[in-house]
Design goal:
By secondary structure, the chain is an alpha+beta fold. The chain folds into 2 domains: 192 residues, Bira Bifunctional Protein, Domain 2 (BirA Bifunctional Protein, domain 2, 2-Layer Sandwich), CATH 3.30.930.10; 43 residues, SH3 type barrels, CATH 2.30.30. The chain is 23% helix and 30% strand. Strands 1-2-3-7-6-5-4 form a 7-stranded mixed β-sheet. β8 and β9 form a beta hairpin.
Length: 259
């Protein structure tokens, strides 16, 4: 079984592995990785002391049990107005890699999570450096719960691949598969085939069909997902027919109970 130092990667990927680091995203901000001669720079670690989740939360990960990584690249052909396509490509790559091991139920949750049923198995962050109307650099950070079975934080719904399947899984093999899945979808972006990518994202979207309960600054309400814009704006159709638009952190998914 491969360890993270020996991952099968395409020739255009540079790889650095540290047994421990504060954050792979912070590591990739170092100048030597910003100016690599490879198209992608991948950083992996067995343990993060300052890993971040959505909304600035700490990402809980037992040492050596989970897949913690980030990668940096320069998608200079992607306009800022289509930046969410990069989130779609990464989320779908994680979804596809996990779905190989699970008999259904793996979905992408807007904006940047991956779920199994109603449980969170993976989360990711993307940061973009912009030059004019184009994206100059994209930095990603990903955490996937692979072999951890006990979660001690107050996160409401974590789960791991091992808890779902009952089996131990190779982090290196999972990451190698994920990289290949990302490259396939990034290829669509580079060829301006945003429609195919977006349709796949909507097809695998968590709670993408039917009415569900959400919460915004005004309280809970029932709505269905109407669509997601190229900038990642979520459109919800409320039960009275009103359509409301939300940026990241402006609306939350709730348990499907009466609002």
């Amino acid at each position: 079984m491969l360890n993270l130092q020996n991952i099968d990667l395409p020739h255009n990927w540079e790889h650095v592995h540290l047994p421990e680091t504060d954050s792979t995203m912070l590591l990739l901000r170092l100048p030597q990785y910003q100016h690599s001669d490879k198209e992608f720079v991948l950083a992996t670690t067995d343990y993060q002391t300052a890993g971040r989740g959505q909304r600035g939360n700490h990402w809980e990960a037992e040492r050596g049990k989970n897949l913690l990584f980030g990668f940096l690249f320069h998608p200079t052909l992607v306009p800022v107005t289509h930046q969410f396509a990069l989130s779609e490509a990464l989320a779908l790559a994680v979804q596809a890699a996990l779905a190989e091991h699970v008999d259904g139920g793996v979905t992408v949750k807007w904006p940047n999570d991956v779920y199994w049923l109603d449980y969170k198995i993976a989360g990711m962050l993307l940061e973009h450096d912009v030059c004019g109307t184009q994206i100059a650099t994209t930095l990603t950070g990903v955490g996937i719960n692979v072999n951890q079975t006990v979660f001690e934080s107050d996160a409401p719904n974590p789960i791991s691949l091992m808890k779902i399947t009952g089996n131990h899984h190779s982090r290196a093999e999972l990451l190698s598969k994920l990289v290949g899945e990302f490259e396939k979808r990034y290829h669509l972006i580079l060829h301006n085939d945003y429609a195919t990518l977006h349709n796949e994202y909507m097809e695998h979207l968590y709670r993408g069909k039917g009415n569900h309960v959400f919460e915004d600054a005004s309280g809970k309400f029932a709505a269905s997902i109407e669509g997601i814009s190229p900038l990642g704006i979520l459109s919800l159709r409320k039960s009275n027919g009103t359509i409301c638009n939300y940026a990241f952190k402006e609306v939350a998914f709730c348990h499907d109970e009466q609002p």
